[in-house]
Each structure stands twice: as structure tokens, then as C-alpha cells.
Amino acid sequence: MDDLKKNLIFCSAAFHIQQCDNNKRENEYLFCLKQLLRFVPSNFDIVVCDNTIKNIDNLKNNELKHILQNKTTFLILNRNIGTKNIGMGELDELIHVYENINFRTYNKVVYFTLRKIITNPWVFEKVNSMEKNGLISNPIFLHLNNNNNFYYSPSTPNLYNDMFFALSSNLMIDYIEYSKNNIEFNLKNNIGSEQNLYKFININQVDYEMLDCLGFIRIDYKANNEIQLI
């Protein structure tokens, strides 16, 4: 592992939102972060950015605070443009991280929305071994609802999933500049971050590797806390 080049994981977070109890949400983020730390290879640095709290003492979960302060670089963005368009809020966090972290010191940069439970190290191994400039996905979802009514939802056309993707560091910088120029347009026209990524990849004819799955678990609070396997 020592001969691998350094990579960066940008983790988007929103610890406190009106729709959810803060304590429950902090606990969910805690275990998502612990799973990340459990599986991430040693050549990855982790930066977490939140846009819903003013300072780290707004968090009540002491274990979460300890991990953020000691195992990651933790940044706070003191604005939240994502209240009506979550993806644009996440991109705004990415821009803020780029303004505070030198991406050029890394080989590859991973974009990861933190409120996902990672089940194994496979995606990071794919990042370390990727030979093209991008690693993207558009997987199907397996929905496991409270009534045991399991079903698949198909991939959505004209987008790339941005729960997790990786770009070479120079290309991620290009993506940040592209997103800066398009955030206002996207907000006005209700265009999501996944469509934004899709347009960037295709306009620039980026060479990429495609993942058929991610091996993540997500809890969808908008669907009565349905569990989704991705």
C-alpha cells in the first residue's frame, strides 16, 4: 500500500436538517463515517464538509465530533444553497473544499455523499486501480421497504450517480470550475448535480470506467426510512 499515490475523499454532509431529529441524524452519520474509516485504504485522506451547522460544538454526539477532529479534515461552509436543490448545496461544499485544500497534491479525488453505509473496500480498490480519468456509475437500486415489498428501480437515463465517483485531480478541478459556472443556472432550472455531472462528462468526452454497483446501503427518510441497496 505504501507505493500507492495519495488520493483524497471529499465527503459532503448535512448534519442538521429540519425534516430529521438531530440526534438520530448525527448517529447515522457517525456510523457511516465509521464504516468509511473501516474500509478506506491508507493512501486516502478524508475531508468532510458540512453546510448546516455554525461550528463543531453544535454537534451533540461526542464520538462523531472526536472522529471529525482527529480522523478527518473538517470544514464548515457557512451558507446552504441546498435547501431546495440538495445537489447544488453539495457542489457548493466541493467548491469550498477546493478553496481550502490543494487538490493538485493528490492523484485522484473522490466525491462521496457521506450519509451512505459502505459495506466493503471494493470501490476504493477500483479508484486505486483505475487507469482512465473517471470512475462513474448509474446503478439500479434494490428497495427494501418496511412491508418486505422488495423491488428494483432501473437506472435513470441522462445522469451519472454522484453518491460516489472519482476523477483524476486535474479533471476534478475542471469539474469544479464547470460547476461554478453553472450553479446559478442549475438552481433556476431545477437541474440536479447528477445531470450536471452527466453533462460535464459528455461535453468534455471524458474517458471513464463504469461501475455496475457500489455496494452501499442508504436509508431514504423521504420513503418512510426505506433501506436501499445500491
CATH superfamily: Spore Coat Polysaccharide Biosynthesis Protein SpsA, Chain A
Arrangement of strands in the largest sheet: 3-2-1-4-9-6-10
Number of domains: 1
Q: Structural class of the helices, strands and pairings?
A: alpha/beta
Question: Which descriptors apply to this entry?
Answer:
single chain, alpha/beta, globular, 7-stranded mixed sheet, 230 residues, Spore Coat Polysaccharide Biosynthesis Protein SpsA, Chain A
Question: How is the secondary structure organized here?
Answer:
Blueprint: E1 7-13, H1 22-39, E2 44-50, H2 62-71, E3 73-76, H3 86-100, E4 108-113, E5 117-118, H4 122-129, E6 134-137, E7 141-144, E8 151-153, E9 164-168, H5 169-188, H6 193-203, E10 208-211, E11 216-220, E12 226-229
Parallel strand pairs: 1-2, 1-4, 2-3, 6-10
Antiparallel strand pairs: 4-9, 5-11, 6-9, 7-8, 7-12, 11-12
Describe the structure.
With 230 residues, the chain is α/β, with parallel strands linked by helices. The chain has a single domain, classed as Spore Coat Polysaccharide Biosynthesis Protein SpsA, Chain A (Alpha-Beta Complex). Helix content is 36%, strand content 24%. It has six helices and twelve strands. The strands form two sheets. Strands 3-2-1-4-9-6-10 form a seven-stranded mixed beta sheet, with helices on both faces. It has a five-stranded antiparallel beta sheet with strand order 5-11-12-7-8. Strand 1, helix 1 and strand 2 form a beta-alpha-beta unit. Helix 1 packs parallel to helix 2, helix 3 (86-100) runs antiparallel to helix 5 and helix 5 (169-188) packs across helix 6 (193-203). It is globular, with a radius of gyration of 17 Å. 32% of the residues are buried. The mean pLDDT is 95.
